[in-house]
Protein backbone atom coordinates (compact mmCIF):
# COMPACT_ATOMS: atom_id res chain seq x y z
CA UNK A 1 0.00 0.00 0.00
CA UNK A 2 2.75 2.32 1.05
CA UNK A 3 4.69 1.37 -2.07
CA UNK A 4 1.78 2.21 -4.39
CA UNK A 5 1.34 5.55 -2.64
CA UNK A 6 4.97 6.31 -3.30
CA UNK A 7 4.62 5.33 -6.95
CA UNK A 8 1.53 7.48 -7.23
CA UNK A 9 3.40 10.41 -5.72
CA UNK A 10 6.33 9.89 -8.08
CA UNK A 11 4.00 9.70 -11.06
CA UNK A 12 2.21 12.85 -9.96
CA UNK A 13 5.55 14.67 -9.61
CA UNK A 14 6.63 13.48 -13.06
CA UNK A 15 3.35 14.58 -14.58
CA UNK A 16 3.71 18.00 -12.94
CA UNK A 17 7.22 18.52 -14.28
CA UNK A 18 6.09 17.45 -17.75
CA UNK A 19 3.24 19.92 -17.68
CA UNK A 20 5.54 22.68 -16.40
CA UNK A 21 7.99 21.92 -19.22
CA UNK A 22 5.14 21.99 -21.72
CA UNK A 23 4.13 25.48 -20.75
CA UNK A 24 7.72 26.69 -20.43
CA UNK A 25 8.34 29.79 -22.46
CA UNK A 26 6.05 32.72 -22.98
CA UNK A 27 6.20 33.29 -19.23
CA UNK A 28 4.75 36.46 -17.86
CA UNK A 29 7.88 37.74 -16.12
CA UNK A 30 10.16 37.96 -19.08
CA UNK A 31 13.24 39.12 -17.25
CA UNK A 32 14.21 35.61 -16.13
CA UNK A 33 15.26 32.67 -18.26
CA UNK A 34 11.93 32.55 -20.04
CA UNK A 35 11.41 32.88 -23.76
CA UNK A 36 8.73 34.56 -25.83
CA UNK A 37 7.42 33.04 -29.06
CA UNK A 38 6.80 35.62 -31.79
CA UNK A 39 5.16 34.97 -35.14
CA UNK A 40 6.62 36.54 -38.28
CA UNK A 41 6.74 35.82 -42.00
CA UNK A 42 9.81 33.91 -43.21
CA UNK A 43 9.60 34.78 -46.92
CA UNK A 44 8.87 38.51 -47.19
CA UNK A 45 12.10 40.41 -47.96
CA UNK A 46 12.41 43.71 -46.07
CA UNK A 47 9.63 42.77 -43.63
CA UNK A 48 10.04 39.27 -42.24
CA UNK A 49 12.58 36.93 -43.78
CA UNK A 50 14.61 33.97 -42.62
CA UNK A 51 18.14 34.34 -43.95
CA UNK A 52 20.43 31.48 -42.95
CA UNK A 53 19.91 31.11 -39.21
CA UNK A 54 18.88 34.76 -38.78
CA UNK A 55 15.75 36.84 -39.23
CA UNK A 56 15.58 40.17 -41.01
CA UNK A 57 13.10 42.88 -41.85
CA UNK A 58 11.04 45.69 -40.39
CA UNK A 59 8.55 43.39 -38.62
CA UNK A 60 11.52 41.62 -37.02
CA UNK A 61 13.06 44.93 -35.88
CA UNK A 62 9.81 46.18 -34.34
CA UNK A 63 9.29 42.78 -32.69
CA UNK A 64 12.81 42.82 -31.21
CA UNK A 65 12.32 46.35 -29.86
CA UNK A 66 8.95 45.53 -28.30
CA UNK A 67 10.21 42.23 -26.82
CA UNK A 68 13.15 44.05 -25.25
CA UNK A 69 10.85 46.62 -23.67
CA UNK A 70 8.85 43.70 -22.25
CA UNK A 71 11.99 42.19 -20.72
CA UNK A 72 13.04 39.70 -23.40
CA UNK A 73 16.44 40.10 -25.00
CA UNK A 74 16.87 38.93 -28.56
CA UNK A 75 18.28 35.55 -27.45
CA UNK A 76 15.03 34.91 -25.57
CA UNK A 77 12.87 35.22 -28.70
CA UNK A 78 11.68 32.05 -30.42
CA UNK A 79 10.61 32.96 -33.98
CA UNK A 80 7.70 31.05 -35.45
CA UNK A 81 6.66 31.19 -39.10
CA UNK A 82 3.13 32.57 -39.30
CA UNK A 83 1.69 32.43 -42.82
CA UNK A 84 -1.39 34.57 -43.45
CA UNK A 85 -4.00 31.76 -43.34
CA UNK A 86 -2.72 30.54 -39.94
CA UNK A 87 -2.30 33.73 -37.93
CA UNK A 88 -5.54 33.74 -35.93
CA UNK A 89 -5.22 30.01 -35.19
CA UNK A 90 -1.63 30.36 -33.99
CA UNK A 91 -2.71 33.06 -31.54
CA UNK A 92 -5.88 31.32 -30.38
CA UNK A 93 -4.04 28.01 -29.92
CA UNK A 94 -1.33 29.70 -27.84
CA UNK A 95 1.52 28.70 -30.21
CA UNK A 96 2.61 32.34 -30.38
CA UNK A 97 2.32 35.18 -27.89
CA UNK A 98 2.58 38.00 -30.42
CA UNK A 99 2.44 38.27 -34.21
CA UNK A 100 4.30 40.87 -36.26
CA UNK A 101 3.57 39.70 -39.80
CA UNK A 102 2.25 42.46 -42.07
CA UNK A 103 -0.97 41.75 -40.19
CA UNK A 104 -3.73 44.27 -40.95
CA UNK A 105 -6.04 45.33 -38.14
CA UNK A 106 -9.60 44.45 -39.23
CA UNK A 107 -12.95 44.16 -37.47
CA UNK A 108 -13.38 40.59 -38.72
CA UNK A 109 -10.06 39.53 -37.17
CA UNK A 110 -10.90 41.38 -33.96
CA UNK A 111 -13.68 38.84 -33.41
CA UNK A 112 -10.94 36.27 -32.76
CA UNK A 113 -7.79 38.17 -31.66
CA UNK A 114 -6.76 41.57 -30.32
CA UNK A 115 -4.32 44.03 -31.85
CA UNK A 116 -1.85 46.59 -30.55
CA UNK A 117 -0.63 49.22 -32.99
CA UNK A 118 -0.74 50.13 -35.77
CA UNK A 119 3.04 50.43 -36.23
CA UNK A 120 2.94 50.89 -40.02
CA UNK A 121 0.40 51.76 -42.71
CA UNK A 122 0.64 50.30 -46.22
CA UNK A 123 -1.75 50.11 -49.18
CA UNK A 124 -2.79 47.24 -51.42
CA UNK A 125 -1.22 47.37 -54.87
CA UNK A 126 -0.20 45.12 -57.80
CA UNK A 127 3.05 43.51 -58.88
CA UNK A 128 3.37 42.86 -62.61
CA UNK A 129 6.00 42.07 -65.24
CA UNK A 130 7.99 45.08 -66.37
CA UNK A 131 6.37 45.05 -69.81
CA UNK A 132 2.80 44.55 -68.51
CA UNK A 133 -0.07 46.74 -69.74
CA UNK A 134 -1.81 46.61 -66.32
CA UNK A 135 -1.78 50.08 -64.76
CA UNK A 136 -4.49 49.83 -62.11
CA UNK A 137 -6.82 47.41 -60.38
CA UNK A 138 -9.47 48.19 -63.01
CA UNK A 139 -7.14 46.71 -65.63
CA UNK A 140 -7.37 43.25 -64.07
CA UNK A 141 -10.50 42.15 -65.92
CA UNK A 142 -9.75 38.96 -67.83
CA UNK A 143 -6.28 38.67 -66.25
CA UNK A 144 -4.96 35.94 -63.98
CA UNK A 145 -4.23 37.23 -60.52
CA UNK A 146 -2.53 35.64 -57.50
CA UNK A 147 -2.85 36.35 -53.79
CA UNK A 148 -2.82 34.57 -50.43
CA UNK A 149 -5.64 32.72 -48.70
CA UNK A 150 -6.91 34.47 -45.57
CA UNK A 151 -5.38 37.83 -46.50
CA UNK A 152 -7.21 41.12 -46.77
CA UNK A 153 -5.65 41.33 -50.24
CA UNK A 154 -7.53 38.31 -51.62
CA UNK A 155 -10.77 39.50 -50.05
CA UNK A 156 -10.59 43.13 -51.16
CA UNK A 157 -9.57 42.47 -54.75
CA UNK A 158 -12.53 40.11 -55.09
CA UNK A 159 -14.82 42.93 -53.94
CA UNK A 160 -13.17 45.49 -56.20
CA UNK A 161 -13.04 43.34 -59.35
CA UNK A 162 -15.95 40.88 -59.12
CA UNK A 163 -15.32 37.71 -61.07
CA UNK A 164 -11.54 38.24 -61.26
CA UNK A 165 -9.62 34.98 -61.85
CA UNK A 166 -7.85 34.59 -58.53
CA UNK A 167 -5.28 31.91 -57.80
CA UNK A 168 -4.64 31.59 -54.05
CA UNK A 169 -1.49 30.22 -52.41
CA UNK A 170 -0.46 30.24 -48.76
CA UNK A 171 2.51 32.59 -49.26
CA UNK A 172 3.25 35.58 -51.50
CA UNK A 173 6.62 34.16 -52.55
CA UNK A 174 4.76 31.35 -54.35
CA UNK A 175 2.68 33.97 -56.19
CA UNK A 176 5.79 35.89 -57.18
CA UNK A 177 7.40 32.72 -58.57
CA UNK A 178 4.24 32.09 -60.60
CA UNK A 179 4.39 35.66 -61.94
CA UNK A 180 8.07 35.37 -62.86
CA UNK A 181 7.49 32.10 -64.74
CA UNK A 182 4.51 33.52 -66.62
CA UNK A 183 1.67 31.37 -65.25
CA UNK A 184 -0.14 34.43 -63.83
CA UNK A 185 -0.37 38.12 -64.84
CA UNK A 186 -0.24 39.95 -61.49
CA UNK A 187 0.22 39.50 -57.73
CA UNK A 188 -1.79 41.60 -55.32
CA UNK A 189 -0.98 42.47 -51.73
CA UNK A 190 0.44 45.44 -49.79
CA UNK A 191 2.76 47.74 -51.74
CA UNK A 192 5.54 47.48 -49.16
CA UNK A 193 5.59 43.68 -49.50
CA UNK A 194 5.57 43.83 -53.31
CA UNK A 195 8.40 46.40 -53.32
CA UNK A 196 10.53 43.94 -51.32
CA UNK A 197 10.10 41.21 -53.95
CA UNK A 198 10.63 43.55 -56.91
CA UNK A 199 13.97 44.63 -55.44
CA UNK A 200 15.31 41.07 -55.08
CA UNK A 201 18.34 40.34 -57.25
CA UNK A 202 16.63 37.60 -59.24
CA UNK A 203 13.63 39.82 -60.10
CA UNK A 204 15.33 43.22 -60.49
CA UNK A 205 14.42 44.77 -63.83
CA UNK A 206 11.83 42.04 -64.47
CA UNK A 207 8.99 42.92 -62.08
CA UNK A 208 7.49 46.26 -61.04
CA UNK A 209 4.97 47.57 -58.51
CA UNK A 210 2.14 49.34 -60.36
CA UNK A 211 2.03 52.17 -57.78
CA UNK A 212 -1.73 52.71 -57.55
CA UNK A 213 -2.65 51.63 -54.00
CA UNK A 214 -6.38 51.12 -53.47
CA UNK A 215 -6.75 50.26 -49.75
CA UNK A 216 -5.30 51.22 -46.39
CA UNK A 217 -3.59 48.41 -44.46
CA UNK A 218 -2.81 49.27 -40.84
CA UNK A 219 -0.28 46.75 -39.47
CA UNK A 220 -1.07 45.63 -35.94
CA UNK A 221 0.51 43.30 -33.41
CA UNK A 222 -1.75 40.29 -32.96
CA UNK A 223 -2.32 38.74 -29.53
CA UNK A 224 -4.91 36.79 -27.51
CA UNK A 225 -8.31 38.44 -27.61
CA UNK A 226 -8.83 40.74 -24.64
CA UNK A 227 -5.18 40.80 -23.45
CA UNK A 228 -5.36 44.49 -22.70
CA UNK A 229 -2.35 44.46 -20.41
CA UNK A 230 -0.05 43.11 -23.13
CA UNK A 231 -1.64 45.42 -25.70
CA UNK A 232 -0.81 48.45 -23.57
CA UNK A 233 2.78 47.32 -23.06
CA UNK A 234 3.20 46.77 -26.80
CA UNK A 235 1.70 50.16 -27.64
CA UNK A 236 3.99 51.92 -25.14
CA UNK A 237 7.00 50.19 -26.73
CA UNK A 238 5.93 51.14 -30.27
CA UNK A 239 5.42 54.75 -29.20
CA UNK A 240 8.87 54.81 -27.63
CA UNK A 241 10.41 53.28 -30.75
CA UNK A 242 8.81 55.99 -32.90
CA UNK A 243 9.67 58.90 -30.60
CA UNK A 244 13.29 57.82 -30.13
CA UNK A 245 13.89 57.77 -33.88
CA UNK A 246 14.63 54.02 -33.82
CA UNK A 247 11.46 53.30 -35.82
CA UNK A 248 12.68 55.45 -38.73
CA UNK A 249 16.19 53.99 -38.49
CA UNK A 250 14.82 50.44 -38.60
CA UNK A 251 12.56 51.31 -41.56
CA UNK A 252 15.40 52.91 -43.54
CA UNK A 253 17.63 49.91 -42.93
CA UNK A 254 15.08 47.21 -43.83
CA UNK A 255 12.50 48.63 -46.25
CA UNK A 256 14.64 51.53 -47.53
CA UNK A 257 16.79 49.50 -49.96
CA UNK A 258 13.66 48.52 -51.96
CA UNK A 259 13.09 52.18 -52.83
CA UNK A 260 9.72 52.22 -51.00
CA UNK A 261 9.04 55.75 -49.80
CA UNK A 262 9.02 55.85 -46.00
CA UNK A 263 5.60 56.92 -44.69
CA UNK A 264 4.99 58.90 -41.51
CA UNK A 265 4.73 56.75 -38.39
CA UNK A 266 1.12 56.17 -37.28
CA UNK A 267 -0.36 56.78 -33.85
CA UNK A 268 -1.68 53.78 -31.97
CA UNK A 269 -5.30 52.82 -31.31
CA UNK A 270 -6.57 52.53 -27.75
CA UNK A 271 -6.46 48.95 -26.43
CA UNK A 272 -9.77 47.27 -25.69
N1 LIG B 1 -1.81 43.11 -44.70
C1 LIG B 1 -2.63 42.17 -45.36
C2 LIG B 1 -3.22 41.13 -44.41
O1 LIG B 1 -3.00 41.19 -43.26
C3 LIG B 1 -1.90 41.45 -46.49
C4 LIG B 1 -0.55 40.94 -46.14
C5 LIG B 1 -0.52 39.60 -45.47
O2 LIG B 1 -1.29 38.69 -45.86
O3 LIG B 1 0.31 39.41 -44.58
O4 LIG B 1 -3.96 40.26 -44.81
Write the layout of secondary structure elements.
Elements lengths: L1 H21 L13 E5 L2 E2 L3 E4 L2 E3 L1 H12 L7 E5 L5 H6 L5 E2 L7 H4 L2 E10 L1 E6 L14 E5 L3 H9 L4 E5 L2 H9 L5 E5 H8 L8 E3 L7 E8 L3 H16 L2 H9 L18
Parallel strand pairs: 1-5, 1-6, 9-10, 9-11
Antiparallel strand pairs: 2-3, 3-4, 7-13, 8-11, 8-12
Helix pairs in contact: 2-8
Overview of the molecule:
The chain has 272 residues and is α/β, with parallel strands linked by helices. The protein is built from nine helices and 13 strands. The strands form four sheets. Strands 10-9-11-8-12 form a five-stranded mixed beta sheet, sandwiched between helices. The protein has a three-stranded parallel beta sheet with strand order 5-1-6. A hairpin with a 3-residue loop joins strand 2 (43-44) and strand 3 (48-51). Helix 2 packs across helix 8 (228-243). The radius of gyration is 21 Å and the shape is globular.
Amino acid sequence: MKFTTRIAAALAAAALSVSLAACGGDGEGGAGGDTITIGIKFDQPGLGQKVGDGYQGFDVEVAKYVAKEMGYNEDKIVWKESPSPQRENLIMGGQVKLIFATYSITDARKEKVSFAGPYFVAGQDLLVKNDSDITSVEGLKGKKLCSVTGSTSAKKVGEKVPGVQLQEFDTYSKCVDALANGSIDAVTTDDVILAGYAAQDNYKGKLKVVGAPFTEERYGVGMKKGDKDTCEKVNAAIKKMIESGDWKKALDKTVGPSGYKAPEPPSQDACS
